[in-house]
Amino acid sequence: MRDLAKWGIIAIAVIAVVAGFISVGGPQAARQTRQDATRLGDLNDIRSFVECVARATDQSVPESLEGQDICNWEVPFRDPYSDVPYGYEKLSDTAYRLCAGFENPQRMATRYALPMDIETGCITWTFQP
């Protein structure tokens, strides 16, 4: 009877571990989520930079992020995991798009309620002068 109880507890523990991996996604999903959170943080830093440049100039977002030395702080313009540059596109004087190669853009958009295009990993922002 003791052996049966011992095996029952082991079976419950194994089931709990497997259920945990299924619900959370395991170590790889956790790594992807952590990397995507870093990418999103980088895009937020770029967003702050873009809006700083706009405030310091003519209240219009810049055409390009290159050569902007007005707002002098370190901005991560490249994905630290793939070394691919983050995307930036000026859409109008106040609207712009930032893009990253998210591992799971659906998860990021849902978790942070982002106006993200799931297909491209791009977020459209509007500068409020």
Any overview of this molecule?
This protein has 129 residues and is α+β, with helices and mostly antiparallel strands. It has one domain. Helix content is 48%, strand content 12%. The protein has a four-stranded antiparallel beta sheet with strand order 1-2-4-3.
Task: Give short descriptive properties of this protein.
single chain, 129 residues, four-stranded antiparallel sheet, elongated
Short overview:
With 129 residues, this protein is of the alpha+beta class. It contains three helices and four strands.
Strand-pairing-aware structural class? alpha+beta
The whole-angstrom Rg is: 22 Å
Poorly predicted runs: none
Number of strands: 4
The major beta sheet can be summarized as:
4 strands, antiparallel
Tally of DSSP helical segments: 3
* Mean of all residue-level pLDDT scores: 85
What pattern of helices and strands is seen along the backbone? HHEEHEE
Q: CA-to-CA gap between the ends?
A: 74 Å
The helicity comes to 40-55%
Portion in beta strands: 5-15%
**How are the strands ordered across the major sheet?**
1-2-4-3
**Number of structurally distinct domains:** 1
Q: Strands, helices and their partners?
A:
Layout: H1 2-24, H2 26-56, E1 87-90, E2 95-99, H3 105-112, E3 116-117, E4 122-126
Antiparallel strand pairs: 1-2, 2-4, 3-4
